[in-house]
Structure formats: C-alpha cells, structure tokens
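pinging the channel bc i need a second pair of eyes. not urgent but kinda urgent?? the chain im working w is below, pasted from the shared doc
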Amino acid sequence: MSPTNTISTSDTQTNENSNAQKTAHINISPQSTSRLPSRQPSPKGGLHPPKRPENSRAASSFIGDLRDKPRDDEAHSKVPYFLRLSGSITPRMLVPLIFVAVWATAISCISEFVYPLVVDSLLLTVLGFVVGLGISFRTSSAYERYIEGRRYWAQLSQVSRDLARLIWIHAEERHSESPEMGKADLLAKLTALNLIVAFAVALKHKLRFEPYAYYEDLDSLVSHLQTFAGEAYDPEVRVPRSMSSWKVAGQYLGLTMAESNPRKQIKRSKKNLGNLPLEILTYLSAYTQSIMANNTFPNGPLQGTVLALLSNLSDVLAGTERVLSTPLPEAYSIAISQITWVYVIALPFQLWASLRWVTIPGTVVGAYIVLGIAAIGREIENPFGYDVNDLPLEKFCNMLASEVNVIASREPPRPEQFVSVEGNRVLWGVEYRAWEGRSVGDIREGLRARAVRRVELNNPDASLVEKVAQGAGDV
C-alpha cells in the first residue's frame, strides 16, 4: 500500500509537439486517484508493478493466506498467546519436531526391544549449560539488531518531521514580488516534502533488497528524478515469477531449500543500480542550496539546522545498512546450530533410563524449547523484512507521509492567527481580550499567583473547572 495523501509529481503531455512538462497534483485519497486520468507508461517504468514482483502470490486459497501477513499493531486479538499462530515460530518447528519424534521413537524402540542405549545424565547437564550460553548469545545479539533497527527508524521519523516543518514554515514564498515566483516557491517546497517521504520509502525498499525505482509506492515520488535505479529498468526483472504451492508451503514451514535468495534482483541486474536513498539526499541538498542562494531561507542558524538534519538522514542510511549487512558471524551461527542439534539428538539416550516411553514426548518438548528459542533468534536477526515479526516499515512510511501532509495542509501560520483571537485562554482560563485590557503588572501578578497559589489539586471532589474558576476569581 502506497502512502496515502502524498503530494506527488507526474509527467503529462501538454502540447501538439509532445513536449513534456512537470505538473503537480495532490492525491487526496485512494478514491480520488481513481478519478484521475490513467497514467501513461513511461520509458523508464511503464505501469505500476505489483508491490513485490519477486514474491507475487501464485498459490491460491489457504496456502496463499498463510504467507506475508504483516504485523498489525492496531488489531486486537482475544486468542490467548499460547494458542496464536500468527507471528509464532510453531509452523517452522513442525518439520524439525517430526524428525525429533521419529528419532526419539527409534531410540526408545531399540532400547526396549534390542539393547538399552543409555548415557549418563551428567552429559545432559554439561551440554545443557553450553547450549544455554550459545542460544542466549544468539538471541541477545539478534534482539539488539532488532532494537537498533527500530531506533534508526524512529530517528528517521523525527528528522523527517523536523526537516519538513522547517522547510514549510521558514522557506519564504515570494508572492509579494511576483505571483509566478510565489507559486514556483510553493511548488518547490512541495517537491522537497515529497523527497523527504521518498527517502523513507526508498530506504525501505533498499533494506529489502529491492533496488529499483518502479515500485508502486515509490514511482510517483521519484519518476521525475535522474537516478541510477530509474535508468537500470529491465522489463525482464519486472515480470512476476509464479511460485508453486510446494514452495509457498516450504517457506511457511521454514524449509531452507524453499527460501529464495533475497538479493536475486540485485544479482540479475546488468546495470549499476546506484544507491537511491543517497541520490534522493543529493536532490534535497540541491534544493536546500537553492533556497539559501536565492535568499528565501535567510535565517543563518536555521540553515545550519537544516544541513545537520540532512546529515542525520545520511547517518540513518549508513546505520541501517550496517544493521542489515552485519549479521552474526557465520562461524557462530554454524557452531550454535550444531551444538543445539547435538543436544537434541542426545536427549533420548539420557532420558530413557528414567522416563521409559515418556522419553518420546519429553524429547519433543525439550526440542521445541531449545530449537524454538534458536529459531526466534534467526527470525528477528533481520528486522527489515516482510515477516510478521519484522518492523512494520509500510506503517512507518504511511505515518510519515500522513504527518508531512498534515504539515503542508495549511499555509504557514502567523501569530495574529492564533494569539489575539477569541478562545485563547492565556491565563487562569481568562481569554486574551480580557487580559489585553489590563496592565502588564496585572498580567505578571497573575503569573506569580499561578506559580505560588496552592490550588487543591489533591481534592478528588473538586473538578478542574472549579479549580481554574477559583484561581481566576482570585486574580
């Protein structure tokens, strides 16, 4: 889903000679876009592609519904946590647990009918300690990467809001000099706000190894830019590849042989894909330079603030790339996996002497606990993917687009529009007009009274209105 209410630019044909010019329009709602003229295919991108061309749902019905369900933080489920499957690692544990059950059954049958295969329980204690250390290290490292990814995205949201606010409020529009110049300044500001949203959306796709610029939620934001990602358009890459039901089921069950290489789009490209978020930052920097040069952004300290915010966006790009490209070293992953499986395989030999046939369910339960915690570490190691337990990047981008549009929904306010107006109760619930008729000494006395007076805040029977009225009456 593309960010709604996003201000965007598009190419249209305007004259008989087919000379292209840029024109701005505002997508007010998803319904309003259906009333707009259909977008003509461009040489770069053509029609909007599916959001995930490499993972389009070819499997239908039940199996197709099992995959790619994003996390919905606003949804409320009354199902107890121990019965939930969405977000659980239980489906990924089915195949390993079946293997463990068959293994435990075979060891139990051999021990009962052929020869007792028994190992001293001391081995269980020693291996359990080592396995606990390994799994704890794996899980804590993965969760640290998850939290760090969320921290960078929170920084991105904050910096983007601040940058959009400073540009919208403090970049002047020269309507007094010329209506055309004022309109050009306004459209330039809207373009800059567009690029701020485009940076977040492009970063989301980059972190998911989607390096192009034609994605549905990104194309309308950057199609007018000259970028390597836009020039690397390849029709063959855009063709969705169907997935068999077996592969869909294998991915749902966590089978490694069914998993696709997430970097396949990058490997297939025959051209330089560039770094789209970085290129968007260069265009934002160029806009910042232009408003400083034409003196429509004359405030020196704020100029430094805007440049620092652009630098912070670059820091977010580098930080998220570091989180993505620095997983747990391969040696650790292999060793922890091998130690864990050695522990699980050795369980039936150590449990048979004490539990007899209960060894089978006991081994399955122990394997579920050990392998399940290890699987959680693998699940959250990359927080930027499409899994249910990954960060909801679509939601973050939509929220940012909505907030930027809220900032741009009104012209920059002037103090006279919200200071000396009716309803502005500046002190003790008394409106501005009433205080305007009193002296400065009365106003300062009211401020001192508000600071020192002990209104009965701890009285549960007194309403807030009564307390304010009491204070206002005394003043």
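so The CA atoms of residues 157 and 400 lie 6 Å apart. and The chain has 18 helices and four strands. — does that match what u expected or am i reading it wrong
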